[in-house]
Specification:
This is EamA-like transporter family protein. It is a multi-pass membrane protein. Belongs to the EamA transporter family. By secondary structure, the protein is mainly alpha-helical. The protein is built from eight helices and no strands. The longest helix has 28 residues. It is globular.
């Protein structure tokens, strides 16, 4: 529908504003790499959403989530070693709590939630609604880490939220006259 196209365009404009490609040179190559990884992750989610929509599931998300975590572990370990270097964690209880949260809770649980939502929402709606994730992440980093809310970030958040609202809010129908 027209509102879905406009909402998707607003969401895309919001993402571009948040990534702020005009400032990449000033921020250095690390920022460029980080933004490219975020775009890569978004493309992977888009492929996942379309796959979920058009394939026939044989197993439930709860059965697949542990395998998803295990299969992803090997390339992620290689990727982290290549780009970050050897493991330097301290083995503290705090480290293990962060790993426990990031693994089963933040990854596997969200994977199952997206699969469940994808069953009762159309692909366009779920894709745009997921743009709320970087907005929540940004707002959390502002509150917890003291990140500065710049003009491009503000414009990006506004555009993304407008796109989400445009697509996700129920449409009102005109009463017959």
């Amino acid at each position: 529908s027209k509102s879905q196209w406009i909402g998707a365009l607003l969401g895309l404009m919001g993402v571009v504003a948040m990534l702020n490609p005009l400032d990449w040179r000033a921020q250095g190559m690390n920022m460029l790499y980080a933004n490219m990884m975020l775009i890569g992750a978004a493309i992977c989610w888009a492929i996942c959403i379309l796959h979920l929509r058009y394939s026939r599931a044989v197993s439930s998300a709860y059965h697949l989530a542990p395998w998803q975590m295990l299969v992803a572990l090997v390339p992620l370990l290689i990727f982290s070693y290549v780009f970050v270097g050897p493991y330097s964690g301290d083995g503290s209880a705090e480290l293990w709590l962060v790993l426990l949260y990031t693994g089963p809770l933040a990854t596997a649980f969200c994977f199952c939630a997206v699969i469940a939502a994808n069953r009762w929402m159309n692909s366009a709606t779920i894709s745009i609604a997921m743009l709320g994730v970087p907005v929540v992440g940004l707002l959390t980093s502002i509150v917890v880490l003291g990140e500065q809310l710049t003009l491009p970030l503000t414009l990006g958040v506004i555009a993304i939220l407008a796109g989400i609202l445009l697509i996700c809010l129920p449409k009102t129908k005109k009463a017959p006259t």
